[in-house]
Write a structure and sequence with these properties.
With 344 residues, this protein is α/β, with parallel strands linked by helices. The protein has helices at 9-16, 46-57, 96-110, 160-164, 175-180, 184-189, 201-215, 228-237, 249-254, 256-264, 274-284, 286-297, 313-324, and strands at 38-40, 82-89, 140-147, 220-224, 244-247, 268-271, 328-329.
């Protein structure tokens, strides 16, 4: 939800998290009422996570009958009270100490009961209980955390997604400029900037995530935008996970050796740019887009109803990814009817 104006977030989340019985006209491929369970967010702007937390805190439903851990995509009716929130550690917070603070800040924003506590246990780990609301009939919120980048890249600041995002009101031009703009408290947390140790800062961050996972603070841990060489190093040092890898559709379709590496280690792949990639292809790869349109049109069941046009190109690709590749997809969120959270 990092690419939409903040004032639209409460409305979108309220619509997405309505109980299926109250939804009208929002159905999946099988004619079932949609029930969104996964919210993908980011701590690059804390107000974004605050709005997510406020929206989730307004939910109320009967407590879950099943207290066993729920995985992303679990649609068991007995776990109808479970919501999954994916948080990310931005590259400015790479390093053990900064990652711990980043996760604590995210938890404080998303879980209202932690807002005024900032408790830590004897080891300094955030002592959150994301399932505490469940006993009171509120939502059972499971937090998942990933490292968004293994290091800062100056190319990020010239990318279209960064320059066009409404949630970066201040546009930096380099990694160093962004680091210099951090508040003094963040800088004092660790004497070493991740920019001074680009090859190892993410490793210390991952160690922090492992500890948080073993402590029960977060449900699963993962990474995003890691290349093959960093992945190999990660698999050598990791004691658990990664459980999730977030990457682009292009990476999924072109980096075969890396995808095989992820499959070998049981890492669940999530695509974060499927809808935007397909829609951009409407002009840049018109022939391929037309083939997807024809393929989708074949699935109207031979109906003579002129209003039945089968599936759109985006739906065709999403269905193929989820049902044939076993890939989770985060189409992106720009409005009420394009919401994140399909997973295999």
């Amino acid at each position: 939800m990092g690419n939409i104006p903040h004032n639209r977030i409460p409305y979108i989340l309220a619509s997405a998290t309505l109980p299926p019985s109250k939804k009208k006209g929002e159905l999946n491929f099988y004619g079932e009422a949609l029930n969104y369970r996964l919210i993908d967010t980011s701590h690059t702007d804390s107000a974004l996570e605050v709005l997510v937390g406020r929206s989730l805190s307004r939910l109320s439903s009967s407590p879950s009958k099943n207290n066993s851990p729920a995985s992303i995509g679990d649609d068991n009716s007995s776990n109808s009270n479970v919501y999954h929130v994916m948080i990310k550690i931005w590259h400015t917070h790479l390093g053990y100490e900064r990652t711990m603070v980043s996760v604590q800040d995210s938890l404080s924003d998303i879980l209202p009961e932690m807002k005024d506590t900032h408790n830590t246990n004897k080891k300094g780990l955030p002592s959150s209980s994301s399932k505490s609301n469940d006993s009171e009939g509120g939502p059972d919120i499971r937090i998942h955390a990933i490292l968004q980048y293994p290091r800062c890249y100056n190319e990020l600041f010239t990318s279209n997604s960064y320059l066009s995002s409404p949630n970066f009101p201040i546009k930096y031009t380099s990694c160093q400029e962004e680091e210099d703009a951090l508040d003094d408290n963040t800088k004092q947390i660790s004497g070493t900037s991740p920019l001074l140790d680009k090859e190892n800062a993410w490793k210390r961050s991952y160690r922090a995530l492992e500890e948080l996972y073993h402590h029960g603070t977060i449900e699963s841990i993962g990474i995003s935008n890691f290349g093959p060489s960093d992945l190999e190093e990660l698999f050598d040092l990791a004691t658990v996970g990664p459980h999730i890898y977030q990457g682009s559709l292009r990476t999924l379709l072109s980096q075969n050796e890396m995808i095989e590496m992820l499959v070998k280690h049981g890492v669940h792949y999530q695509c974060y740019d499927v809808a935007s990639t397909i829609m951009n292809g409407k002009d840049k790869a018109h022939g391929a887009y037309q083939k997807l349109e024809r393929l989708g049109a074949k699935h109207n069941g031979g109906s003579s109803d002129e209003s039945s046009y089968g599936y759109s190109p985006v739906q065709v690709v999403l269905g193929w990814l989820v049902h044939h590749r076993g890939v989770g997809v985060i189409p992106g969120t720009t409005g009420k009817y394009l919401l994140c959270g399909m997973t295999g």
